[in-house]
UniProtKB/TrEMBL annotation:
One GO BP: pollen development
Enzyme Commission numbers on file: 3.6.4.13
Residues of the Helicase C-terminal domain: 208-382
Subcellular location: Mitochondrion matrix, Mitochondrion nucleoid; Nucleus
Name recorded for this polypeptide: RNA helicase
Quaternary organization: Homodimer; in free form. Component of the mitochondrial degradosome (mtEXO) complex which is a heteropentamer containing 2 copies of SUPV3L1 and 3 copies of PNPT1.
Gene, per the UniProt record: LOC123452197
Catalytic activity: ATP + H2O = ADP + phosphate + H(+)
Length: 573
């Protein structure tokens, strides 16, 4: 402990700090697997100078000693959308004595939990914003970021493993792949991921078996475009890539008087997306056409007859670009779901100029995924911050990532959003771990209301240690939106409420209003659903509204919420 005191006071030179701190870590190697003696000696043994380099990330499989104690049997289930690969993996999970499913979306995690519980296999649900524990459960269904790499399982499933190549979330899939401690690991995804998975698992000494799948139902690319919108028919899904274009197409289809549309896009609350998908799938529903973004690419079971691309270009947050081959195949593959009333899927475009790219993409294999995402754990960043004598997260992140050493099979995940949040929380008197948690939160930094919500939560937590929801949000101010701008603002409010729930699971008693936030979040979803139903029926000259409780129809004014944020912000300065 005397060593730690010297380090805190800065009484040692930088070289002495480095060597003494390493000896301190070796003395307390039971604190965490990353700082155990074996790993530290490995790092020291790989540097001729005898110095440790905590920016050396060339052997990330060593971060997970529990998994390395097993010789795992890894089964790669690879094939196109609608090929049964995940279904077969889940059958094995269902038959196991204990297990975990790791999916890319909350919707998928919930769907699997419900499937297992319905099959009399008790299964917990764990996502960033949800915890549902079932008595006696030895199975869990989780979003991939929530994967537990310390628990032992008989069977584990990682879905959509091609997302190891995702520039923002790939690191979470890599962590699950390398770190899950299970006798059997079933990994499902696109065949393009096979070479990188094989290379990554060479270092783990796991036994790898590959099973290839073919699509279960035909997918037919049409030679002609949709033509006039009068050719829209029940079961069609028009795909576009902006919320304004989604509502423009919805209005155009509904004004013709033949169809009503469900809508699905990323910023809709997950509950609303599920409700919209359910109504579209229901044969008794009048909502028989879907207008959607690429959010339909995974996570929702949809009975789609024909996918119609309104465009093959999208804005990806940086620039407007053509869709990639995997994106086109993932979306198009949603047509003709096996076992649905549409056994043959069709796909076409609105614009004839897009047909050549559509046809060539569907014939082409997805480009091979060359590298997997990686990101330093908090433990590495914590050690590095102590060696550098600072608890400011933004410069530590920048410095670490600038010096990080990786093998050719990995890339550092994009952390632009994390750095933006780090710049905010570095202004506050918070511990490094607390800052890291806020940086990991699901805040949308491109949304002003969401960012302001995070800032107020962090400031109140730093000042008081307890964050009450009513300090920045007034329950009883929500009503059904009447314009697209109000709808967008209500979606932003939903994000703030989700953020509070997420933080409440990380900071325990410091965010005590989880139930209130969850109830207000549900109200947001219901109001958005009512807006969607009202807009459709009003365009048909009819009035058929959801029968929601009176309390849901109270006044909603997002400008009031913004003003409340500003008022609190002004008082804090």
């Amino acid at each position: 402990m005397a060593v730690a005191a010297l380090l805190r006071r800065g009484a040692l030179s930088s070289s002495s700090r480095h060597d003494v701190y390493i000896r301190c870590l070796l003395s307390y190697s039971d604190l965490h697997p990353l700082v155990n003696s074996a790993n530290l000696r490995f790092w020291r043994g790989n540097h001729s100078s005898g110095k440790f380099d905590f920016t050396d990330m060339t052997h990330p499989h060593l971060w997970y000693p529990n998994a390395r104690e097993k010789k795992r049997n890894v089964f790669l289930h690879v094939g196109p959308t609608n090929s049964g690969k995940t279904h077969n993996a889940l059958k094995r999970l269902e038959a196991s004595s204990s297990g975990v499913y790791c999916g890319p979306l909350r919707l998928l995690a919930r769907e699997v939990a419900e499937r297992l519980n319905k099959a009399s296999v008790p299964c917990n649900l764990t996502t960033g914003q949800e915890r549902e524990e079932i008595e006696g459960a030895k199975h869990s269904s989780v979003t991939v970021e929530m994967a537990d790499v310390t628990t032992e399982y008989q069977c584990a499933v990682i879905d959509e493993i091609q997302m190891v190549g995702c520039r923002t979330r790939g690191c979470s899939f890599t962590r699950a792949l390398l770190g899950i401690c299970s006798d059997e690991l079933h990994v499902c995804g696109d065949p393009a991921v096979v070479p990188i998975i094989q290379r990554l698992l060479e270092a783990t000494d796991d036994v790898v078996t590959i099973q290839y799948y073919e699509r279960l139902s035909p997918l037919v690319p049409l030679k002609s475009t949709l033509g006039p919108f009068s050719n829209i028919k029940a079961g069609d899904c028009i795909v576009t890539f902006s919320r304004r274009e989604i509502y423009k197409l919805k209005k155009k289809i509904e004004m013709a008087g033949k169809h009503l549309c469900s809508v699905v896009y990323g910023s809709l609350p997950p509950e609303t997306r599920t409700k919209q998908a359910t109504m579209f799938n229901d044969e008794a529903s009048d909502l028989n056409v879907l207008v959607a973004s690429d959010a339909i690419g995974m996570g929702l079971n949809l009975n789609i007859s024909r996918i119609i691309f309104s465009t093959l270009k999208k804005f990806d947050g940086i620039s407007t670009r053509e869709l990639t081959v995997p994106e086109i195949k993932q979306i198009a593959g949603r047509a003709g779901r096996y076992g649905s009333k549409f056994p043959v899927g069709e796909v076409t475009c609105l614009d004839a100029e897009d047909l050549p790219l559509l046809h060539s993409s569907l014939k082409s294999p997805s480009p091979i995924i060359e590298r997997a995402g990686l990101f330093p754990t908090f433990d590495l960043l914590s050690v590095y911050s102590r060696l550098n004598g600072t608890d400011f997260l933004h410069p530590i992140l920048e410095r670490f990532l600038d010096k990080a050493k990786l093998s050719p099979d990995y890339f550092i995940a994009d952390c632009e959003d994390m750095l933006k949040v780090a710049a905010i929380v570095d202004e506050l008197p918070l511990a490094l771990h607390d800052k890291y948690v806020f940086c990991q939160s699901p805040v949308d930094v491109r949304d002003d209301i969401s960012t302001q919500g995070l800032t107020q939560f962090a400031e109140n937590y730093a000042k008081k240690g307890t964050v009450r929801l009513k300090e920045i949000f007034t329950p009883g101010t929500l009503r059904v939106p009447t314009t697209h701008n109000q709808l967008q603002e209500l979606e932003s409010v939903h994000k703030v409420l989700e953020l509070y729930v997420w933080l409440s699971y990380r900071f325990d008693d410091s965010f005590p209003d989880r139930e209130l936030a969850a109830s207000q979040k549900s109200i947001c979803s219901m109001l958005i659903e009512e807006y969607l139903e009202r807009s459709g029926w009003q365009q048909q000259g009819q009035r058929r509204f959801l029968h929601t409780p009176r309390k849901l129809r109270q006044e909603y004014d997002a400008s009031q919420l913004r003003g409340y944020f500003r008022e609190i912000d002004a008082r804090s300065k």
